[in-house]
Specification:
- By secondary structure, the protein is an all-alpha fold.
- The chain has eleven helices and no strands.
Amino acid sequence: LAEATRGASRTASASEHERLAAAVPGRHRGEQHPQHRPGLDLGRRARAPRPLVKDPEMTEPLDPDSGPARERILAAAEELFAERGFDATPPSRIAERAGVPKGLVHYYFTRKPDLLSALVERLPEERVDRESVIVAGDVTESLCRLVTVLDEMLGASATLSHLLWREADTHPAVRDALHDRFDRLVGVIRDVVLGAREGNPTGVESVVLLLAAAVSYRHSVARHADDESAAKAEMTRELRFLAEALDAGVG
């Protein structure tokens, strides 16, 4: 009796399955239901690829032939740090600007601050030919010539200098490097003043420190100067004042 009951149940189930299959248009006996067909995704329409929208802050990458990868990375970092700031510039953006894989940035510079340390090394040395600027007996002219040379050096690295001055407050390595440069600047100015005064040291240290501070400040804000000629004229007046103070024995 149990076997007969199970047989009847199977027959009824098969009949019900065939009846439901006949109710689905275009489906034949033994054919899989569309929902179970491999690779068929019902309810999802093919979508056209979304157009790429360029980030307005993105810029064209550097020329791949512009130098070794490390130099391109540093050049890109210098530009982006100046444009966006150190903290707002991710390594991925530097890699994109330099035209290199992101992993290459981390290969050369394990930590992001390492980029700043490397940029400090790119600053030109304040190597001044003393003989070309010193005019014996004329402190004003000697200092004017010296400042002109220093301004030309700044012109070769104005963006980098401005960037490092801005980041010095939050990055000790940059601050220490700028302090070292200031000390070297003091030494150069001292040599020129002593040369112009033919070795007379009276009042020299005060004048040297004042002039070094003035030059450093001018260079730190040089990118924002509205009138360069006016700034040079003002500096000339300051140099003449310092020279007159030395002649008067002040200091």
